[in-house]
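Work Package 4 report. The design task specified in the project plan requires that, given a folded chain encoded as structure tokens, an amino acid be chosen for each position. We show below one input record used in the internal validation round.
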């Protein structure tokens, strides 16, 4: 049935991240994430309130996130679609994103800008 298909699909994606800080491990709900940013061997996880670090490379992380909920907008950035307030296009076809829950502006790279044409 369609319902069991939908339930199966949602189970394939991670719901929680184990974020480490020194000797403490914290669980971060994927639903609370505003964006992910690659940072050498680590990935920074930004929620509305703070930043966490996980050891999962962003490429690997992308495969375990729901592609309808998270878009890769740059080689090193994955953003929660629901957190995008606006996307402003520049002359070179890149977008600058304003977020709902964070003050930073995120820049997409040209190779990932196709996603915004659907918006």
């Amino acid at each position: 049935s369609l319902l069991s298909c939908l339930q199966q699909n949602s189970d394939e994606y991670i719901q929680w991240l184990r974020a480490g800080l020194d000797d403490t491990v914290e669980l971060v709900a994927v639903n609370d994430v505003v964006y992910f940013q690659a940072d050498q061997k680590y990935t920074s996880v930004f929620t509305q309130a703070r930043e966490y670090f996980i050891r999962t490379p962003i490429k690997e992380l992308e495969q375990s996130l729901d592609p309808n909920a998270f878009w890769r907008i740059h080689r090193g950035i994955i953003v929660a679609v629901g957190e995008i307030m606006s996307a402003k296009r520049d002359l070179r076809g890149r977008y600058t994103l304003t977020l709902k829950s964070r003050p930073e502006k995120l820049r997409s790279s040209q190779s990932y800008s196709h996603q915004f044409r659907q918006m």
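The mean pLDDT is 88. Validation will be extended to a larger panel in the next phase.
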